[in-house]
């Protein structure tokens, strides 16, 4: 094998992996699985796909070794093949945020609508948590919170949020996080809190980004 043939083959194999990711549904699936393993049915529900369609996308990702699969009883569960898979998505997302004005505008327009334009960095979060005046809220589903969350966070899933705000103290400040910059749960929660007279802001990134930065993680074992 000469050097040209070697390069052609290496880049060809890598391009197939990139091609597997080059689909909006499959990118969303990778983002979702950054929270932890999920069944095919759960993935279909969270991404608003049929089970058959979700299964097809999952097979494409698995064939490129981006996902791993295991069976639990009658259900098939998928997870990311490694932390580097999420990191590759995170890097792509950051390139998009820095280079594509359309993405930045979409996010700003949506957050203005939800009263959540100002977002908090991880460094600022850690400073505020030390004051004792800030409560950190995780509004992801309970299964994701149990799989892993930022230490000290209180889980109030977004679908329960309206019913549980009456138990929150208005003497505290609230920082809300969810799955990441493209997840809207935190924006919806901040809007609800702001409308009810609470001081609230969203975290700029989500739990998988916190974990990817090597920061401490808590979990609840079932």
Report on this structure.
By secondary structure, the chain is of the alpha/beta class. The chain folds into two domains: 3-85, Winged helix-like DNA-binding domain superfamily/Winged helix DNA-binding domain (Arc Repressor Mutant, subunit A, Orthogonal Bundle); 106-212, Rhodanese-like domain (Oxidized Rhodanese, domain 1), CATH 3.40.250.10. Helices cover 53% and strands 15% of the residues. The chain has helices at residues 3-21, 24-33, 40-47, 51-63, 83-99, 101-113, 122-131, 142-147, 161-164, 185-195, 207-212, and strands at residues 38-39, 67-72, 75-80, 119-120, 134-138, 154-155, 173-177, 199-203. The strands form two sheets. It has a five-stranded parallel beta sheet, sandwiched between helices. Strands 1-3-2 form a three-stranded antiparallel beta sheet. Strand 2 (67-72) and strand 3 form a beta hairpin. It is globular, with a radius of gyration of 19 Å. Residues 130-219 form the Rhodanese domain. It comes from Paraflavisolibacter caeni. InterPro entries: ArsR-like_HTH (IPR011991), GlpE_sulfurtransferase (IPR050229), HTH_ArsR_DNA-bd_dom (IPR001845), Rhodanese-like_dom (IPR001763), Rhodanese-like_dom_sf (IPR036873), Thiosulphate_STrfase_CS (IPR001307), WH-like_DNA-bd_sf (IPR036388), WH_DNA-bd_sf (IPR036390).
